[in-house]
């Protein structure tokens, strides 16, 4: 760590630009994660109080319980999600001067939960920049049998016909990965507090959860400061514009009250 408390990820920047993914071991300490975990779990329960039985859900629903913008429910989560330490890593990997929060989400893959089909996150986002990034941080140790995500290296630089998260995206992207000979990479088992980062257009998937423990993961998404909202290209983007860019109209700078500038931090 540097004098200002930022984590030096200079050695990861070129690889991130090339591959569209990177891993930062030990980004949060075990103590930080242990303190945060019950807050995320309580907020996730508040967002999903009575989830329907796994067997009754579609493929997307079986992949995880998704709880969004949990920072708005809990001060401890807010302070974690708004942490300049994480935002600084995002800005460094994106090679931009500043980043704003898009949103957070807790992704809890339950025991018996299914795979997360191949997809690109940015299909869902009405933003005019490709400088977008997601941090994926387990709050519990993730064993080999569950694993972290698998990325198609360099796919963020390819022209990919995009799909939403479904059986269709799994099949179509599997075929595309084989056809183009894309290299797959996973960082495998991770410790609580390790984090992977991926670009908004990087193709990725995750395996199922055959264990009896919940795979508790917290994610945070940022975009380059200066990005503008675009006219929604699909129904998901319409919903995202209303929710995560609330107060911002297409064409305007995406700088609304839910999208604080998190790096540079005050006084950094
Ligand atoms: C997962 O946690 O299984 C997938 C996360 C993502 O798609 O970004
Ligand atoms: Ni994703």
TrEMBL record:
Pfam families: PhyH. Transmembrane segments: none annotated. Keywords: Dioxygenase, Iron, Metal-binding, Oxidoreductase. PROSITE patterns: FE2OG_OXY. One of its GO terms (molecular function) is iron ion binding. It comes from the Bacteria. Residues 89-225 form the Fe2OG dioxygenase domain. InterPro entries: Oxoglu/Fe-dep_dioxygenase_dom, Phytyl_CoA_dOase-like. Belongs to the iron/ascorbate-dependent oxidoreductase family. This is Phytanoyl-CoA dioxygenase.
């Amino acid at each position: 760590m540097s004098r200002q408390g930022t984590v030096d990820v200079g050695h990861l920047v070129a690889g991130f630009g090339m591959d569209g993914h990177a891993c930062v071991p030990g980004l949060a300490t075990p103590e930080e994660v242990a303190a945060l975990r019950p807050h995320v779990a309580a907020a996730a329960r508040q967002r999903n109080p009575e989830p329907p039985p796994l067997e009754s859900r579609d493929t997307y629903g079986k992949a995880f319980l998704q709880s969004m913008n949990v920072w708005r429910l809990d001060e401890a989560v807010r302070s974690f999600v708004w942490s300049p330490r994480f935002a600084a890593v995002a800005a460094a990997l994106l090679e931009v001067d500043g980043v704003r929060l898009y949103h957070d989400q807790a992704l809890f893959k339950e025991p018996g939960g299914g795979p997360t089909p191949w997809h690109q996150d940015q299909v869902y986002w009405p933003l005019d920049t490709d400088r977008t990034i997601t941090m994926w941080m387990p709050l519990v140790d993730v064993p080999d049998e569950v694993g972290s995500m698998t990325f198609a290296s360099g796919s963020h630089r390819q022209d990919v016909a995009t799909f939403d998260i479904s059986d269709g995206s799994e099949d179509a992207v599997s075929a595309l990965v084989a056809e183009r000979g894309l290299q797959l990479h996973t960082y495998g088992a991770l410790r609580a507090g390790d984090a992977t980062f991926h670009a908004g257009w990087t193709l990725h998937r995750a395996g199922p959860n055959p264990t009896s423990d919940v795979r508790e993961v917290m994610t945070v998404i940022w975009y380059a400061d200066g990005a503008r909202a675009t006219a929604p290209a699909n129904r998901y983007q319409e919903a995202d514009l209303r929710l995560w860019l609330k107060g911002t109209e297409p064409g305007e700078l995406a700088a609304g009250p839910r999208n604080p500038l998190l790096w540079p931090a005050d006084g950094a």
